[in-house]
Structures are given as structure tokens and as C-alpha cells.
Amino acid sequence: MSSLRRAGSIPALLILCSASLQALPNLPSSIAEWLGSPAAAAYAPIAAELEAMASTARSSGIPEIVLVERLQEGALKNIRPALLGPALRLDLGRFTAMRELLAHFDCLPGDTTSLASLLRQGAILMRAGYTDTELETILAATGSQAAGGGQAATGGYASDPEARGPRALRAAAVALDASGRFGLSVQSRLALGRALAASELSAKRFAELLSLLAKARGLGLSSDGAIAIIIQGLERGASLDALERDISRRTIKP
Q1: Which of 44, 90, 216, 229 is the most exposed, fewest CB within 10 Å of its CB?
Q2: Domain map of the chain by residue range?
Q3: What span, in angstroms and rounded, lies between the C-alpha atoms of 143 and 43?
């Protein structure tokens, strides 16, 4: 299965993946059921391998539907069994790592549908270049407001464990999008994701920072320089309007 690294907007992908292949009618919810479907006929040679992965997923608390979706995607693209098996095993590792992170920070969703959505999103980000250690850093940042008094501005996410996972993944996605569009260093990408997760901004407004970065670049600031200004502002609780003023004051004059 191809990487999503070169896809356009990562935040948009996270929204779309909530619907994912579950939106297709009659999508099986288990690998055993999928193996009995017409789409699986070409994958009989790796059936035992797929069933073993399903068993691992169940024992790890991973909804099988996320594996079924990837299988169905591979089948629709006519991916050869010899390639589909290893690709699915990689995804199983990503799903496992994401679930462990959510459990570590005590923000596992209470229902299977929400958990599957977060696992999909985490896997997309990992396929696009994030490590689980980087996502751990961003997830940890979502809890920093609990002691900082910023909960009112964010709708109380710090006191709502189930809101922290989606917030962290949205922050990571916007930082990755910014990195792809503006050529950020890996350090700046991670710093931006962490700052967004810990900020007082609503997660729905994270993507608006992309237009601020575009303005900063148009006014002569380097990408990493603009990110430094934005991070400093986020850390002091600045609004988006205040961040725009900060950028305007710091632009390079001809």
C-alpha cells in the first residue's frame, strides 16, 4: 500500500479517514469474515498470516475493522499478496503503538468506533513520517494545560481525557502539513505540534496557522523563523490575531 507522505492536506485526510472504508456497504468487521468475501479470493495464500494478525489485534485491544479496511484498500488496488501481508503487518505495528500511547496517557476512547478513528489517524501520521516518540511528545503536551489554567479557552480538553487524543493528532497533522508546505526542519515541526497541543487555541482553529505561515513567508521571514515567533506566541497564550501582529512586526524590511 502506498505511503500518504505526498498527499495534499494531512488535516483533510484525518477528517476523511473518520468515514474511511466503513462507509462502503457490507464491509466485514473481522478478518475471518473478510476472508470469506469475493474480494479476498486472491489472498488465500496469506490467509493464515492474516488470521494470525487478527488474533494479535484482538489480544492487543485493536478493533479488527482497521485491519479489514486496509485489506479492502489493498484488494481494491490489486496489491499482490506478497506485498499486502508485510504492509498490513507494518500497519498493525502502527495501530498497536498508537493504542499504547493512548493507554499510557489514560485517554483511550470509551467506544470502539472512536478508538478505531484515532488508530486510523495515528497510522496515517506514522506512514507520513512521524515516529511514535514524536506523537508521544505531542500527546504529553495536551496535558500541560491542566496546571496552566488554560482549559476555559479550549473547552476543558485537559480535564477530558477523550478530547486529548483527537487534539494531539490534529496538532501533529497541522504541524506535518506546515512542514510539507513550508519546508520546516524536523525540530520545528515537532515544536509546532507540541505548542499547538498545549496552547489555548481550539483544535478547530489549528489549521488557520497555515495562512499565517504563508503570510510570514510572503513578507520575507524564513519558515523556521516564523515558526519560532508563532511558538513563542502560543506559549504566552496569544490569539491568532496577536500572532499575526507579531509576524507583521518581525518581518524583514527591504
Answers
A1: 44
A2: 1-129, 132-254
A3: 44
